[in-house]
Specification:
Distance between the termini: 74 Å
Helix content: 25-40%
Largest sheet: 9 strands, mixed
Radius of gyration: 26 Å
Number of strands: 11
CATH topology of the largest domain: D-Maltodextrin-Binding Protein, domain 2
CATH architecture of the largest domain: 3-Layer(aba) Sandwich
């Protein structure tokens, strides 16, 4: 049928609008008729302390399954907050199960929380001569920072430091950072004399730091957790990945993590 444009301006506008709709929707109709499906692509949110080992594991899994991925590394508290505000992650891999339990209570997870590897807290010191008592520590909500605060509260007013006579808690100035890798960088650079990081972070640190103590107590361990959020686009593949990562105990142990 031939369209005649000899009508009023209003009529011409109507014809143009209908024509534009046909142009826009034709590609969509074509895609639906061809039956093409969207290839899975997982968006993974992971604790910064997993940065040295997780990419290699994800590459292995992707090669086996042909499922592509992208990963965002940040502090666990920050990633949990992004999930609460609607970030469309397919899988959360955080440095504590506590924020995942909170998300579950809010109805923001569609899977149970799986236990991952565990880590332990390390008290790190810059090897240079100390001129201040600044302590780099994770912000509230960062699992390493929360564990460090609990450890400090349990200590006496003065506690031993093998490099100086004693450390007086009242002299300590806590400087907060968003994740353990930024804490580590602050100690390595000398911006802070001390810092609380994970044992796995020490494996990649420079020679200008030294470990004062490692919290090897069972109750001092931080157990990582994995879960699939409600907004996951590919929940089945994400759940498969979570279980696969949970089984890679040799790789976690080689990277310095503990297997419970």
């Amino acid at each position: 049928m031939e369209l005649q444009l000899r009508e009023s301006p209003r009529g011409v506008g109507l014809v143009l609008m209908l024509t534009r709709r046909v142009i826009v929707w034709l590609p969509l109709l074509f895609l639906s008729c061809t039956g093409r499906s969207v290839e899975p692509h997982l968006r993974i949110a992971a604790a910064a302390s997993l940065g040295d080992v997780l990419p290699t594991l994800l590459e292995q899994w992707s090669a086996q399954t042909q499922v592509s991925f992208e990963v965002t590394f940040a502090g666990s508290g920050e990633l949990a907050a992004q999930t609460r505000h609607g970030a469309p992650f397919d899988l959360l891999f955080l440095a504590s199960q506590a924020p995942l339990r909170d998300l579950h209570e809010l109805g923001l997870l569609q899977s149970r929380v799986l236990a991952g590897p565990s880590n332990r807290l390390v008290w790190l010191r810059h090897s240079g001569e100390s001129v201040h008592q600044r302590v780099a520590i994770g912000s509230p909500g960062v699992p390493a920072g929360d564990a460090a605060r609990a450890w400090l509260e349990a200590q006496p007013t003065r506690f031993s430091d093998s490099t100086v006579a004693a450390v007086t808690q009242s002299d300590l100035s806590l400087i907060e950072f968003p994740h353990v890798r930024s804490v580590l960088a602050a100690v390595e650079s000398g911006a802070c004399s001390y810092g609380f990081v994970y044992a796995t972070d020490v494996q990649s640190t420079s020679s200008n730091t030294r470990v004062l103590f490692s919290d090897d107590r069972p109750k001092g361990r931080v157990v990582y957790g994995l879960a699939v959020p409600k907004r996951a686009s590919f929940p089945s593949q994400a759940q498969q990945l979570a279980h696969w990562l949970q089984r890679q105990q040799d790789a976690w142990h080689a990277a310095g993590f503990l297997n419970d």
